[in-house]
């Protein structure tokens, strides 16, 4: 059962990356920043979208290597810890920042739990 949940998280991560690639301006608004033009849009698509797409697809492509699932979890945990630190440093306790923190931490913990 836990393995299915992990692959659902991987799929959601890949879908998020695809969404960012297709709709970079919508993602930027949700995250609270602007694409700032064509170059900004390309950067959001490649860095944000490409990373999420690759991170989500890696455990699916590397199905026979369970460490790929753990790696995704470690990345999510590092992102959550970074976000937590920056929430305090930047004093940015906005609703979506907290929601993203909870999702990242939750996904990370689920992904590192042994299946």
The gist of it:
By secondary structure, the chain is mostly helical.
What's the count of strands?
0
Q: Assembly state here? A: single chain
Order of helices and strands: HHHHH
* Number of self-contained structural domains: 1
Number of helices: 5
Strand content: under 5%
Query: Which class best fits the helix and strand makeup?
Result: mainly alpha
Q: Name the overall outline.
A: globular
Topology:
Layout lengths: L1 H21 L1 H8 L6 H24 L5 H24 L4 H18 L3
Helix pairs in contact: 1-2, 1-3, 3-4, 4-5
Structure description:
The protein contains 5 helices and no strands. By secondary structure, it is mostly helical. The chain has one domain (2-112). Helix 1 (2-22) runs antiparallel to helix 3 (38-61) and helix 4 packs antiparallel against helix 5.
Brief descriptors of the model:
single chain; 115 residues; mainly alpha; 5 helices; globular
């Amino acid at each position: 059962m836990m393995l299915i949940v992990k692959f659902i998280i991987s799929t959601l991560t890949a879908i998020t990356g695809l969404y960012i690639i297709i709709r970079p301006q919508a993602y930027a608004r949700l995250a609270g920043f602007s694409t700032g033009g064509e170059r900004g849009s390309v950067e959001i698509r490649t860095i944000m979208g490409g990373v999420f797409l690759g991170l989500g697809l890696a455990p699916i492509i590397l199905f026979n290597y369970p460490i790929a699932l753990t790696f995704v979890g470690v990345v999510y945990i590092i992102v959550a810890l970074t976000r937590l630190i920056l929430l305090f440093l930047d004093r940015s306790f906005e609703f979506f920042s907290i929601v993203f923190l909870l999702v990242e931490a939750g996904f990370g913990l689920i992904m590192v739990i042994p299946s």
